Amino acid sequence: MNPKRPGLTWSLIVIVGFLTLCPVLMLLLGSFSQGLTAFGQFTTAKYVAAYTDPHLLEVFSNTVIFVLGSTVFATLLALVLAYLNTRTNIPCKSLFTVLSIVPMMIPHLLFSVSWALLLNPSNGLLNLFLKDFLGLSASPFDIYTLEGMILVEGLLNMPIAYLIIAPAMASFDGALEEASRVGGAGVWRTLWRVTLPVLRPAILAAFVLGIVRSLASYAVPRVLGMPGRVDVLATYLYEMISTGFAPDYGQAAALGMSVLSVSIGLIVLYRALTASGDKFVTISGRGYRPSVIELKNARLPLFAAVGLFSVLMVVLPVAVLFYTSLVPYSMVPSAQAFASMSWNHWVEVLQDPISLLALRNSLFLAIVGATLGVMLSLFIAYVVVKIRTRASGLLESLSFLSFSFPGIVIGIGFMWFFVQTPLYATLTALLLAYVATYLPYGVRPLASAFVQVHAHLEESSLVCGAGPLTTFRRVIVPLVVPGIVSAWILMATMFVRELTVSVVLSRPGSEVLAVQILNFADDGLWGKLSALGIVMILISTGLVLLAAYAGRRFKGMRAG
Amino acid sequence: MDIHIEGLVKTYQSEGRTVRALDGIDLHIPANQIFTLLGPSGCGKTTLLRCIVGLETPDDGEIRIGDQVVWSGRKRISVPPEKRGLGMVFQTYAIWPHMNVFDNVAYPLQVRGERRAAIREKVLKALRFVQLEGLEGRSATRLSGGQQQRVALARALVAEPKVILFDEPLSNLDAKLREETRKILRRFLTELGITAVYVTHDRVEALALSDSIAVLNGGHIVERGDPQKIYFNADHRFVADFIGRANLIAATVQAQEPDATVVQSPLGVLRCQKRDFPVGASVTLCIRPEFLLLSRVDAGGGGGGADAAGAPPNIIEGRLETLDFVGEVYETEVRVQDQLLLARVDPGVAAAAGDAVRFMLAPEHCLLVME
Q1: CATH of domain A1-22+343-560
Q2: How many angstroms separate the CA of residue A172 from the nearest CA in chain B?
Q3: What 3-state class would DSSP assign to A117?
Q4: Is the ipTM beyond the 0.95 threshold?
Q5: Is the same domain home to B160 and B63?
Q6: Which residue of B has its CA nearest to A467?
Q7: What are the tens digits of pLDDT across the range B130-159?
Q8: Do A457 and B98 touch (CB under 8 A)?
Q9: Measured between CB atoms, which of A454, A456, A465 is closest to B82?
């Protein structure tokens, strides 16, 4: 036996290499070509056209403000929340877990829509209410602005930043701070001179990841930016290829190359930051708890603030959508509104053939896509964690590459590819693009599961006479079931809500839920949109419960 | 079944440097014995074991188990571990947490496709042998460390392997349990009369368990022999030092007598175990603390020294520098002129630091090794 398994490693490198490099190379090729269907002669005309567009400067400055603004907002918010949770005596700490996990269950598209429903200048619920209440002549808030986009994108990215910063803060060796206090520094000085600098790698990592995500973000700019004509790169790129205008995939590819390069650069930086993180964040094995700051009088007001924030993040979006799906048109909750409530929007949506098709397609993509994705991720994670060769390092880098992919850009890359094949406008095209784009979401939980499986468990099976396949099936897979379940849940929920890749690749016949919801938004059919949105959230939740149940059953079966 | 190893080489790349974990090992492991590979960490003993079992691929050389060549660089033979028909007990036990005791032990038979009834019978027999009958339905991870150890042993034995290999199997147990388990293991293996290869860095374990010991250092086999040979009559300073506590003192051969070699040392002229060194050669004198017998204490009452049998004993006179009570004995340092000697004193003896003492030392316990 060769324990390095070069055959397996190289087959995976070929598969993953195809999935992740194909869109990148096609994008590059496309940006130097004349047209989508025929590459034609090598040309730099598309670059010239794309980068000399006078509108680009405005788009670029909007993008910078949007990306930096929302990331700073998200990181600061996460920092405050993580500090409150891990280092103070604020009550009811389980609230923070809810706050960091649940918002990820609400699709970005629907979160953006719910804020539009609340704060749009013409008939946003909160605006209407405040106008009535304060007797104003104009709406006090306008969400269709750069500030509004920053607010919503920041809220959406907060949980990611929180999940990076909070564990680092929790595992912080309290003695570092105690030494500073003994040395004569006060609470604030210690925070500023010791705590934050030691946490710098985690904070920076959260910040860089935030930039990558907001740069790739499409839902927020599309829902909140387009009505107010605030274009950022993602929406600008989409306008270039959307069929309503004169689509120019070449120009889009040329511009997309910049976005992709920046993203890849940032992800390389992110990996460097997280790799050197171990050096800084000192986890003491001696069971020290970090010293807890007494909040005293601020305890309850701060708790109230966090509670209110949780309502804003979790309850409000769903409540607004549900309310909107029941009332005939936008109106402030009142006796009249409740009297006119009906299931009409629901009935219409569930009888609408395109919505039903989108529902079926999304379910198919979620279940089949997540299953295929997890199977691929299982082998990748195994090779990356258990076989430490140069080739497995290459595989790791390849599978991590798609973490940096901005959906729109990579969708454009895939479009250049699929249009040459019979896969164009099929569900299979979406399936491949989904798996390629979201591969890291499958690999990461499985990799951490494999790290916990001692090599001896596998080796003893081989010595017992079981071949590699039997060993994989009977020993390795059962031991990483928790990882399989979380990878499947992550991928399936990502696929149900998928918007950015689909918006490029989806064609009549291969509609998916998010695209259909966007169509409703374009037509101003908020009631139908909300009904379909709630259906989407219900499916996500259902898949999570299903996978968790299956995982428990499987474990129970094995243990019994 | 015996194991032949010839010219085995294994190198690692570690931080840009090449480490020779096995540097041309030639070894014959005889059949139906407990054979121990002993050495400090990093000496290559575990690598050698893993090459035998097939979990590591050597760079060069040949391994034969019985008549079968399982690995040969020259003949390009490489039998995968699952086809070698061996049993192994891992340092971590490697009990599969998702299976119960029965399934863990049954696994080697299941993958061989044996019939259910036969599997059940053999598993129960193996569990009876390791005294775990009645626990087959238990979740394997709920067992104590010692019990998990025996599940691992049962699993290694159940398919009647040609050879059974142990990779430091006792190192995760606490001291008391380690001793008990060691005795049980010795009894099991003696009863089975199977070829067992045992890797450890614990010298007591090696001495107590083995029929034969090979001491490894730096990817080489330094010396091999039965436990008595390794302990009393080591040929190499490294082995003498590694296998037990020892006073190592530079000495010069003064004369060869028919039944002893006489050396000049800082302790005076000593009659030592007979060794073939030329007169005038520089050697190392190795004296184990337990063989320094206290024969007289001048300050307090007299302590009776035992008479050594055979040749007349050497007499060493000195002064007790320190006296540490460690339970069953006093550990003491004795100053003999400029030399400090480790020795042991019976706790019943009335002695105190500063007392002048006299030790007797039998020539057969004065071991001479190459420098």
Answers
A1: 1.10.3720.10
A2: 30
A3: helix
A4: no
A5: yes
A6: B82
A7: 888 888 888 887 888 888 888 999 999 898
A8: no
A9: A465
